[in-house]
Specification:
Radius of gyration: 20 Å
Largest sheet: 7 strands, parallel
Bound molecules: nicotinamide-adenine-dinucleotide, thymidine-5'-diphosphate
Distance between the termini: 52 Å
CATH class of the domain at 3-188 and 223-252 and 293-312: Alpha Beta
CATH superfamily of the domain at 3-188 and 223-252 and 293-312: NAD(P)-binding Rossmann-like Domain
Strand order of the largest sheet: 3-2-1-4-5-6-10
Number of helices: 12
CATH topology of the domain at 3-188 and 223-252 and 293-312: Rossmann fold
């Protein structure tokens, strides 16, 4: 039995995680705390919002008084901490927002959990969801392992690295029962269309330019979001307290090849002439401090806990495109208003 505080459950990964736990564990109670920033959307949770083991609280993880009140009311036995500012490009224009939510917010959550749990730590779990970007940038060879030294290079990854360090510090100093996972790039339904894959799907549908930073040679390791939340489920229940687990897809793509694969599949699905979407590819100014390559060695997770990704990339991308084509209303909804302003400012020249 668990009563779990999920933070950021209205976002991309958090909504998949909330759905998995609400449906798979009807005996658990799930409370979703989310500030509903531009990235949080209750539409992502429509199918579970009336479930009897689920409730939603709108609030900010930096609000320690609110956190203390929620711990006192619900007596949480676990935290699944997903809430974050998550977009590298936004961290370049507004780094302090990332320090505030990712560092101070994580600090406040740790303090609230520590104070609420006191010495009664048996069965408690503070699970911190993090990113492979804390390890920095790889050259053409090699993989990040759990012992790779942290070397974050963007305000986003630096703020996530800081939060990882705080979580570990609470384990060593106060014996808070923490678990951490660092995952590669996710893709799938409900992904906000300012990140590469949903942005390109949206632009292909609307015949708009596909902005590729630099030469498109940067490499990312892509994992289907449902495989990520399955891994979190496995680590939450079977992982060792105090440990870190890397999660990855063994699925590296240069940005250019990835966008070409999207174009190929979408031409087929939209009944467009072969090669027509590729003509939308437009090279734009590179991201400042653009990390060249991320690649994860997830063998610890495989060897210790038996987790492997379930989907091949071409299949995952096909499912993802189908979801966006079948959920145009969701896409139209999130790409109106504030999104247009962001897009026009970010991609002024495209
Ligand atoms: P997202 O931006 O889609 O969602 C973040 C959610 O957090 C939103 O619902 C937002 O409203 C909420 N939030 C933001 N600030 C908040 C605050 N101060 N208080 C309460 N709620 C707040 O992000 P995502 O892609 O779902 O990422 C979730 C987590 O997974 C993040 O910690 C991120 O670092 C990590 N991660 C993401 C990826 C990826 O590819 N997206 C990969 C590895 C790890
Ligand atoms: P993104 O989805 O922002 O994830 P992250 O920066 O966390 O890896 O970007 C994925 C890759 O795609 C990254 O190398 C930057 C690149 N990119 C573009 O080339 N064009 C774009 O418009 C965006 C948003 C990203």
């Amino acid at each position: 039995m668990h009563t779990i505080l999920i933070t950021g459950g209205a976002g991309f990964i958090g909504s998949h995680l909330a759905r998995l736990f609400v449906i798979k564990y009807p005996e658990y109670k799930i409370v979703n705390l989310d500030k509903l920033t531009y990235a949080g959307n209750l539409e992502n949770l429509k199918d579970i919002e009336t479930a009897s083991n689920y409730s939603f609280v709108k609030g900010d993880i930096t609000d320690l008084a609110l956190l203390k009140e929620l711990f006192a009311t619900h007596q949480f036995t676990a935290v699944l901490h997903c809430a974050a500012e998550s977009h590298v490009d936004r961290s370049i224009t507004d780094p302090l927002a990332f320090v505030t939510t990712n560092v101070l917010g994580t600090g406040a959550l740790l303090v609230a959990a520590k104070e609420s749990w006191g010495n009664d730590l048996a069965g408690k779990v503070f699970y911190h969801i993090s990113t492979d970007e804390v390890y920095g940038s790889l050259g053409a060879e090699g993989f990040f392992t759990e012992s790779t030294a942290y070397d974050p290079r963007s305000p986003y990854s630096a703020s996530k690295a800081s939060s990882d360090h705080l979580v570990r510090a609470f384990y060593h100093t106060y014996h808070l029962p923490v678990k951490i996972s660092n995952c590669s790039n996710n893709y799938g339904p409900f992904h906000f269309p300012e990140k590469l894959i949903p942005l390109c799907i949206h632009n292909i549908i609307n015949n708009k330019p596909l902005p590729i930073y630099g030469k498109g040679e940067n490499v990312r390791d892509w994992l289907y979001v449902e495989d990520h939340v399955r891994a979190i489920d496995t680590i939450f229940h079977n992982g060792k307290v105090g440990e870190t687990y890397n999660i990855g897809g063994h699925n590296e793509w240069t940005n250019l090849n990835l966008v070409k694969e999207l174009c190929r599949q979408m031409d087929e699905k939209l009944g467009r002439e072969k090669g027509s979407s590729e003509k939308l590819i437009t090279y734009v100014t590179d991201r400042a401090g653009h990390d060249l390559r991320y690649a994860i060695d997830a063998s610890k997770l495989k060897n210790e806990l038996g987790w492997l990704p379930s989907l091949q990339f071409e299949e995952g991308i096909s499912k993802t495109i189908d979801w966006y084509l079948n959920n145009k209303e969701w896409l139209d909804d999130v790409t109106s208003g504030g999104y247009q302003l962001y897009y026009d400012t970010m991609y002024r020249k495209v």
